[in-house]
C-alpha cells in the first residue's frame, strides 16, 4: 500500500457507491460497487486473498470513488462504468451468446421473421428458442396457419402463398388494420401457450370436414394438428402454467463463479446459458452485476418472471429491470432454482481444471517470466521482428500479448521509410522510435516488457531509443534462435546475459508463442507486400490493367503464380473485361 492509497482509505465514507481501481499508468483495471465504501475498499488491502485477487491488488496504484444515494444507484453506475472503461478484471459478458427469437414486425403489413437481434422497436418478440432449427420450424408452422405477409417486398401481383391460402395478398388487396391486429393477437396467443386451443379448433374442423365427406380438407387439418404436436409439444412439461421465466442459479469455488440461467418458455425448459468468471467481490453483489449485464449488454429479452436463489437482493433487481422477481421458498419453482445452482456447481467443477491450466499457460507464465528476469510481472508484452528478401521489400511488425494471450487489435505493421534496404539495425531503430513516439503522443498504455527478435546488437538499438531518446524505463529482452531457427535463449540485463529458463517451463513456452507469432505476422506482411510489388512490376504497361485491377487480381487469386496459370474465363470471372483478360493471357504466354 503506497502513501496515496493509505491516505485515501482514511477518507472513505460510510456510504454506498462505486470505486475504480487504477494501475501505475492510470488505467482503470477494476470497477466495483459497495453498500459501504469504507468497508469494501479497505478489504482489498487488508487480510489474506487468493492468488487471483492478490494479482489484482498487486496492480492497484490508486483508486477513485463515487458516492451514490442508494444501492440501486450504485449498481446502475457500476454497469455504466464497466461499459465505459471495459476494465480488464471485470466480468464482460459478450453479446455473441445470442439466441434466436421470433419477431412480428410493426410494419403496415406485418410479417414474421427469425432474428438474433433484439431492438427497441415496436415489433413483438418471442423466445428465446434453443436453436435456429426450432425457431424456423415454429415459423414454418405459423406460415401455414396464418395468412400474414410472407415476402420481403410487396410484388406487383399475387404469389403462390395467396393461392395456398397462406397470404392475404396485400400487394393487390386492401387489408384492414383490424384484420392484422386480430392475426397478430392470435399468433401472440399461440406462441404464449395458446396453441392447445388452436389444436382443439383444428380437431373440431377436421371432424366436421370428415363428416361432410371433405376428405382433402380433413387431411389438411390433420397435417396441421400433427405439425403442432411435432413442433410445440416436443418437450416434457416442467410447470403447470405457461409463464415465460428465467431461472438463475450460481456456484462459487476457489475464487471462481459459475452462473447458470434456465430459460423456461410455455412451461418448458428449452435452454440454459452458462457463464464462468473470476470472483473479486461478494457472490451476491457479483450476481447483481451479472444480471444487469445479462439483460443490458447481451440484450436478452426480459421474461414475465425471474426466479433468484436466496441471498440476492430481490428489490434491487426488480427496480433495475422493472419485472416480476421472486425468490421461491417451496414447490417446483424452488426446485428449478436448486437445479440451476446444482448445474452451476457441476459445470464449475468440470471446467475448473481447464481454467487452471489456462491460467498456468498465460498469467502464470507471465509471473514466472517476471520472476526469472527479476522484474515486475510483464502482463503487457510487445515484440518486434523485421523481414526482407535480400534487402528487397523490407518490413517490420509488432505483436502485443496481454496476460499471456495475443491481443490482435494492437498488432502493427511497418514499412520502413528511412532505413537502408539491408540495414536491420536501422529498421529496428526506426520502428521502435515510431511505435513509442506514437504511444506517448496518444497516451497509450506502455508495455511492461519489450521483446526484440534478435541478439545483443538489436537490443542495444532498442535501448538507445527507449532510454536515451525517449527517457522511458521499460525492460528490453532479446530472443536468440538455434541452428534450427527455434527459440533457444532469452537475453536480458546490462551487461546482457542469458536468463536461465527451463525449456519445459510455461514461461519458455510463452516466449516461443510470442516469437512464433511475431515471425508469422511479419512474414505474412512481407509476402503480401512482395506479391503486391511483384504484381505491379509484372503487369506494368499492359493496356486496361491499372493499379485497382492489379490489386483486384491479387485479391481474387492470392498469388502471381495463380494469375499466370489462370484461363481467360477465370480472369474474366475475377473482374477483368473479356478483352483485357485475353491481353493478360497472351502476355503471360509470350513471357513463357
How would you sum up this structure, described in words?
By secondary structure, the protein is of the alpha+beta class. The protein starts with a helix and ends with a helix. Helices cover about 45% and strands about 20% of the residues. The longest helix has about 35 residues, at about 175-210. The strands form 4 sheets. Strands 12, 13, 14, 15, 16, 17, 18 and 19 form an 8-stranded mixed sheet that branches. A 5-stranded mixed sheet has the order 9-8-7-10-11. The model has no long low-confidence stretch (mean pLDDT about 85). Interacts with UvrB in an incision complex. Its main location: cytoplasm. Belongs to the UvrC family.
User: What is the helix fraction of residues, given as a range?
Assistant: 40-55%
What does the main sheet amount to?
8 strands, mixed
Shape: flat
Could you tell me the radius of gyration in angstroms? 32 Å
Report low-confidence residues grouped into runs of 5 or more: none
Q: Can you give the mean pLDDT? A: 84
Distance between the termini: 74 Å
Which percent range describes the beta-strand content? 15-25%
Task: List the SSEs and their pairings.
Blueprint (H helix, E strand, L loop, with lengths): L2 H9 L5 E6 L5 E7 L2 H7 L7 H9 L2 E6 L3 H15 L15 E4 L7 E4 L8 E3 L5 H14 L14 H4 L13 H35 L3 H18 L12 E9 L2 E10 L2 E11 L4 H14 L8 E3 L6 H8 L2 E3 L4 H31 L1 H11 L6 E10 L2 E11 L2 E2 L5 E4 L8 H18 L7 E4 L3 H14 L6 E6 L5 E6 L4 E3 L6 H34 L7 H11 L2 H6 L2 H6 L4 H14 L1
Parallel strand pairs: 7-10, 10-11, 12-16, 16-17
Antiparallel strand pairs: 1-2, 1-3, 4-5, 4-6, 7-8, 8-9, 12-13, 13-14, 13-15, 17-18, 18-19
Helix pairs in contact: 4-9, 4-10, 5-8, 7-8, 9-10, 11-12, 12-15, 13-14, 15-16
Subcellular location: Cytoplasm
Protein name: UvrABC system protein C
Subunit structure: Interacts with UvrB in an incision complex.
Amino acid at each position: 500500500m503506497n502513501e496515496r492509497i493509505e491516505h485515501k482509505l482514511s477518507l472513505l465514507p460510510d456510504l454506498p457507491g462505486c470505486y475504480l481501481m487504477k494501475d501505475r499508468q492510470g488505467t482503470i483495471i477494476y470497477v466495483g460497487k459497495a453498500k459501504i465504501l469504507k468497508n469494501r475498499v479497505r478489504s482489498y488491502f487488508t487480510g489474506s486473498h487468493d492468488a487471483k485477487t492478490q494479482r489484482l491488488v498487486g496492480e492497484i496504484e490508486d483508486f477513485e470513488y463515487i458516492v451514490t444515494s442508494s444501492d440501486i444507484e450504485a449498481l446502475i453506475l457500476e454497469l455504466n462504468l464497466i461499459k465505459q472503461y471495459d476494465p480488464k478484471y471485470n466480468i464482460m459478458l459478450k453479446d455473441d451468446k445470442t439466441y434466436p427469437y421470433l419477431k412480428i414486425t410493426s410494419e403496415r403489413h406485418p410479417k414474421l421473421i427469425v432474428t438474433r437481434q433484439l431492438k427497441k422497436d415496436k415489433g413483438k418478440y418471442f423466445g428465446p428458442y434453443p436453436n435456429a432449427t426450432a425457431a424456423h420450424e415454429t415459423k414454418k408452422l405459423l406460415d401455414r396457419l396464418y395468412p400474414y405477409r410472407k415476402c420481403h417486398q410487396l410484388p406487383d401481383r399475387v404469389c403462390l402463398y395467396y393461392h395456398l391460402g397462406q397470404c392475404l395478398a396485400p400487394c393487390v388487396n386492401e387489408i384492414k388494420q383490424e384484420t392484422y391486429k386480430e392475426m397478430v393477437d392470435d399468433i401472440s396467443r399461440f406462441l404464449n401457450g395458446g396453441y392447445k386451443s388452436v389444436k382443439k379448433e383444428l380437431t373440431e374442423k377436421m371432424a366436421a370436414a370428415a363428416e361432410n365427406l371433405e376428405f382433402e380438407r380433413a387431411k389438411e387439418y390433420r397435417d396441421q394438428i400433427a405439425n403442432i404436436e411435432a413442433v410445440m409439444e416436443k418437450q416434457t412439461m416442467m410447470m403447470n402454467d405457461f409463464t415465460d421465466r428465467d431461472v438463475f442459479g450460481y456456484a462459487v469455488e476457489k475464487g471462481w463463479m459459475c452462473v447458470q440461467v434456465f430459460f423456461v418458455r410455455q412451461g418448458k425448459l428449452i435452454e440454459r446459458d452458462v457463464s464462468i468468471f473470476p470472483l473479486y467481490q461478494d457472490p451476491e453483489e457479483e450476481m447483481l452485476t451479472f444480471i444487469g449485464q445479462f439483460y443490458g449488454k447481451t440484450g436478452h429479452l426480459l421474461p414475465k418472471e425471474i426466479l433468484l436463489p436466496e441471498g440476492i437482493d430481490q428489490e434491487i433487481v426488480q427496480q433495475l429491470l422493472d419485472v416480476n422477481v421472486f425468490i421461491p421458498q417451496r414447490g417446483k419453482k424452488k426446485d428449478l432454482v436448486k437445479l440451476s445452482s446444482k448445474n452451476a456447481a457441476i459445470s464449475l467443477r468440470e471446467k475448473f481444471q481447464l481454467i487452471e491450466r489456462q491460467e498456468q499457460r498465460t498469467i502464470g507464465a507471465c509471473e514466472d517470466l517476471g520472476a526469472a528476469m527479476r522484474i515486475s510481472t510483464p502482463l503487457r508484452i510487445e515484440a518486434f521482428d523485421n523481414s526482407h528478401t535480400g534487402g528487397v521489400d523490407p518490413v517490420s511488425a509488432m505483436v502485443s500479448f496481454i496476460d499471456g494471450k495475443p491481443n490482435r487489435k494492437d498488432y502493427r505493421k511497418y514499412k520502413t521509410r528511412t532505413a537502408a534496404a539491408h540495414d536491420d539495425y536501422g529498421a529496428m531503430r526506426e520502428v521502435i522510435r515510431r511505435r513509442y513516439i506514437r504511444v506517448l503522443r496518444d497516451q497509450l498504455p506502455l508495455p511492461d516488457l519489450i521483446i526484440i527478435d534478435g541478439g545483443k546488437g538489436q537490443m542495444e538499438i532498442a535501448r538507445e531509443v527507449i532510454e536515451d531518446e525517449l527517457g522511458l524505463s521499460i525492460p528490453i529482452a532479446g530472443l536468440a534462435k538455434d541452428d534450427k531457427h527455434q527459440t533457444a535463449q532469452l537475453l536480458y540485463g546490462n551487461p546482457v546475459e542469458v536468463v536461465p529458463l527451463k525449456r519445459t517451463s510455461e514461461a519458455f513456452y510463452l516466449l516461443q508463442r510470442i516469437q512464433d507469432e511475431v515471425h508469422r505476422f511479419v512474414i505474412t506482411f512481407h509476402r503480401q507486400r512482395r506479391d503486391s510489388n511483384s504484381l505491379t512490376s509484372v503487369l506494368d504497361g499492359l493496356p486496361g490493367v491499372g493499379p485497382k485491377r492489379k490489386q483486384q487480381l491479387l485479391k481474387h487469386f492470392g498469388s502471381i503464380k495463380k494469375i499466370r496459370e489462370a484461363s481467360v474465363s477465370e480472369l474474366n470471372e475475377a473482374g477483368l473485361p473479356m478483352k483485357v483478360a485475353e491481353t493478360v493471357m497472351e502476355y503471360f504466354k509470350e513471357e513463357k
